[in-house]
Amino acid sequence: MMQLTDFIYILVSVLCFCGYIWANMRFCKRYLKISKGRELIFTALFFSGWVLGTMNEQYTVSYMVLAMLHHIFFVGLVVLLFHGDVGKKISVAAILLTVTTLAGNFFTSFFSCVALIWQHTVNRMLEPIIAGWEYSVINNIVLIIEITIICWLTKALCSVFYDKTRRWYVTLVVLLFAFTAMIDVANWGSSNGIMVRSGGNMGLFYDQLFSHAEIIALTALSMFAAGFYVFGMNRIDLEQKKAAQYHSQVLTYKMLEQQYSRSERLRHDMKNHIIALSGLLEDKEWEKMNDYLNKMRDSANLGTGEELTGSRVVDALLYQKREKAEKQGILWQCDVQIPKLCGMEEFDLCVLFGNILDNAVNACEAMEGSMANQGLQRFIDIQGKTVKKCFLLEVKNSIHIKDKNQAGTAYQKIQHWGTGLLNVNDVVQKYNGAINMEVEKNIFSISILIPLADAVHDSRQAI
After folding, report:
1. Which residue in 427, 430, 446, 422 sits closest to 241, CA to CA?
2. Nearest to residue 70, comparing CAs of 228, 227, 180?
3. Higher-confidence residue: 16 or 306?
4. How confident is the model at residue 302 (pLDDT cuts 50, 70, 90)?
5. b/e string for 333-353 if b means 16 or more Cβ within 10 A?
6. CATH for 307-456?
7. Are 96 and 161 in contact (CB under 8 A)?
8. Residue 146 pLDDT more than 90?
9. Is there a contact between 330 and 379 (Cβ–Cβ < 8 Å)?
């Protein structure tokens, strides 16, 4: 008959593993999608797999076979039940497996060492062995630690799964599975008596300590290497995207410069053009006059832009973005006045306005099939002015909030930013400015404050 203590141990173990399932589900749902029905199936199958695994002592299944079945089973659950790109789903499962395998083995060996030393020194056991309730307590403590680590990583890995290619996911998965396999082999060796021994004259107690110390050292190095690899790869990918976007912005800036160069040449030759047009008008050569005007317009790439900001590059950029927004039916409001001696290079102004407005237009376009159909107006509002000794730029745009966690100041954390906003942040930091972003009531707002040069520190210009 089951004793009360055994029942308590089983109950605590079940509760701990239910928390472990919840943490894994929360992590997967952060980066993947799943329906309520499939969520229940995932939970039921995950729990059933754990029950079957704990019954392994009654059978002769080897450790390596059991570990391999566990990994395949978990990856299969994630791939089959969650929605999303296959590479991303496997990567999510691989990170969870690597984290739980490395952390589980590290802390299991660590607490096993503590328990062995306690039994040997306090209880005076010459050759202590961990079994029964001690083994159950260690497993439950390790599960609680794993739950804590998974919950922390749920937010810490946001940028790792943002805007990645399938090739990136494949590269990530290969090494993570290699770390997991290495630890599985080390555990298989321990389970088959392949242990780090003291030389044969120090007894089973020290042999166990040396073997657990080996696992601790191996898993600690593996955790450091895996973390360095994941975050390092993510950093390299981010820098490559920033460099590519920066190169694109350089080309855009050169294009705007060429456009204004053509416009300047047109203005310089305006007197001659007027004489030519007057001759065509007197001769009533309407078609030739129309062709002449069209050539003038095309050569200078003139538009009917309304923005006069004080920067020719920003004027051209605003005209292009406004034209794109209005084609999409997005309400455009703009009032920007840039001080002549603000101290910012025109290229940096191009990076600042270009990235912010690209994000705003993309956010509004994404609403077309969702929130826009609910009668909400898509808009972009740009305000720029001198405030005391600073240039203040405020941009607001409508946005569709998919996750309630996006509300408030969640976007202030740099790991949540896209590549464009990271380039914006680089410009702001270059001029010792400040940046703030908020999301509230389906409106995203970004405020940038840039200190002005001494030349514009005139009280008549300050507000």
Report:
1. 422
2. 180
3. 16
4. very low
5. ebebebbeebebeebbbbbbb
6. 3.30.565.10
7. no
8. yes
9. yes
Cβ of 23: how many Cβ atoms within 10 Å?
21
Sign of CA dihedral 69, 71, 77, 80: negative
Residue 380: name the closest of 320, 330, 438, 344 by CA. Answer: 330
Beginning with the edge strand found earlier in the chain, give each strand of the sheet holding 443-451 in spatial order.
331-336, 379-387, 390-398, 443-451, 434-440
Beta strands at 390-398 and 379-387: parallel, antiparallel or unpaired:
antiparallel
Alpha-carbon span 207 to 226, nearest angstrom: 28
Share of the chain above pLDDT 70, in %: 74
Strand 443-451 relative to strand 390-398, pairing: antiparallel
Tally Cβ neighbours within 10 Å of residue 248. 11
Q: Which amino acid is at 245?
A: Q
pLDDT, residue 381, reads: 92
Residues 393, 380: Cα–Cα separation, whole Å: 13
What is the distance between the alpha carbons of residues 226 and 355, in angstroms, rounded to a whole number?
33
- pTM exceeds 0.85 for this model: no
Distance CA 237, CA 207 (A): 45
Distances (CA, A) of 140 to 16, 104, 131, 146: 6, 11, 14, 10
Count Cβ atoms below 10 Å from residue 239 Cβ, excluding itself: 12
Q: What pLDDT band is residue 28 in, cutting at 50, 70 and 90?
A: very high
Report whether 389 contacts 452 (CB < 8 A): yes
- Count of C-beta atoms within a 10 Å radius of residue 324: 15
pLDDT greater than 90 at residue 82: yes
3-state secondary structure of 303: coil
Structural domain spans, the chain? 4-234, 307-456
| pLDDT band for position 156 (cuts 50, 70, 90) | confident
Q: Is 5 helix (H, G, I), strand (E, B) or coil?
A: helix
Q: What string of H, E and C letters represents the secondary structure of 58-111?
A: HCCCCHHHHHHHHHHHHHHHHHHHCECCHHHHHHHHHHHHHHHHHHHHHHHHHH
Residue-wise pLDDT tens digits, 242-276: 676 666 666 666 666 666 565 555 555 565 656 66
Q: Which residue type does 209 have?
A: L
When pLDDT is averaged across residues 136-142 and rounded to a whole number, the result is 88
pLDDT in tens, 379-421: 999 998 888 888 899 999 988 765 544 444 444 444 445 667 8
Distance separating alpha carbons of residues 394 and 378, to the nearest angstrom: 17
Residue recorded with tokens 């810490």 = 156
Cα 255 to chain centroid distance, Å, stands at: 32
Interatomic CA distance for residues 348 and 325, integer angstroms:
22
Q: Are 47 and 21 in contact (CB under 8 A)?
A: yes
